[in-house]
Amino acid sequence: MKKKIISTGDGSPSLYIEELNETYHSKHGALTESSYVYIKKGLAHWLDQNNKKELKVFELGMGTGLNAYLSYVFSVNQKISCEYLSIEKYPLSLKEIRSLKMKESLPAREHYHFFDQLHEMEWNQMFSQSDFFFKKVKKDFFSIGLDDSYDVLFYDAFGYHAQSNMWQENALQICHEILKPGGVWVSYCAKGDVRRRLEKIGFSVERLEGPPGKREMLRAIKGG
Ligand SMILES: C[S@@+](CC[C@H](N)C(=O)[O-])C[C@H]1O[C@@H](n2cnc3c(N)ncnc32)[C@H](O)[C@@H]1O
């Protein structure tokens, strides 16, 4: 699909897909959205609630690698050990990643090598740096077949209007299956139908204040 580079509200870049009329991140700020939704309301929240220094994170949709990079920086700063699995059905090429120039907007210049590494490494291989264990898998979310060993799940699918199948009960049920009891599902999405589906499956759902430009977002905790 044809993609166009855009500049978002905080100056960081993102991609726009004409066919889907959809962007990879919020137009109001890609970096701001990822830092707020996935790091602050996901990872930092988990750390706050759990007296542990080791966790497993699953990401739906590696895309530009922004969430993965920010998670690495967070883990190093917090001195935690993190196993991070990111899956991607439609990988961006190295050429697309380089022309996006995402790295130039990222914090923590001393860790830029990790951003390069995560894109340059082979698929299905584990790469570790400090106590961060990163693996990317080129696969469709609907065929992942994982067990319930994840503490935090970043649900970063394209929006409902562009990819409604990712927000139906069967997709959300897979999320429930791969999280540990007490595990945290987090997404920029705030749609009422999605919230009700999550609740029906057995999640406790919180409506949180959204990142700039979005009124709300969802965080769901697996009961049990
Ligand atoms: C909103 S973008 C994610 C942005 C990404 N997290 C980032 O930080 O750049 C959605 C991503 O999900 C991927 N995706 C869409 N459907 C998928 C599926 N069924 N399985 C795996 N990945 C999928 C897309 O290719 C895209 O990269």
Word description of this protein:
This protein is α/β, with parallel strands linked by helices. It has a single domain, classed as Vaccinia Virus protein VP39 (Rossmann fold, 3-Layer(aba) Sandwich), CATH 3.40.50.150. Strands 6-7-5-4-8-9-11-10 form an eight-stranded mixed β-sheet, with helices on both faces. The chain has a three-stranded antiparallel β-sheet with strand order 1-2-3, with no helix packed on it. Helix 1 crosses helix 2 and helix 5 crosses helix 6. It is globular, with a radius of gyration of 16 Å. It binds S-adenosylmethionine.
Mean pLDDT: 97
- Principal-axis shape: globular
Q: Give the helix/strand class.
A: alpha/beta
* Helix and strand run: EEEHEHEHHEEEHEHEE
DSSP strand content: 25-35%
Specify the helix fraction band. Answer: 25-40%
Strand order of the largest sheet: 6-7-5-4-8-9-11-10
| CATH architecture classification name | 3-Layer(aba) Sandwich
Query: What is the CATH first-level class name?
Result: Alpha Beta
Question: What is the secondary structure topology, with strand pairs?
Answer:
Blueprint: E1 3-7, E2 13-17, E3 22-23, H1 30-49, E4 54-60, H2 66-78, E5 81-88, H3 94-100, H4 112-120, E6 126-129, E7 132-138, E8 150-155, H5 169-178, E9 179-187, H6 192-201, E10 203-209, E11 216-222
Parallel strand pairs: 4-5, 4-8, 5-7, 8-9
Antiparallel strand pairs: 1-2, 2-3, 6-7, 9-11, 10-11
Helix pairs in contact: 1-2, 5-6
Bound molecules: S-adenosylmethionine.
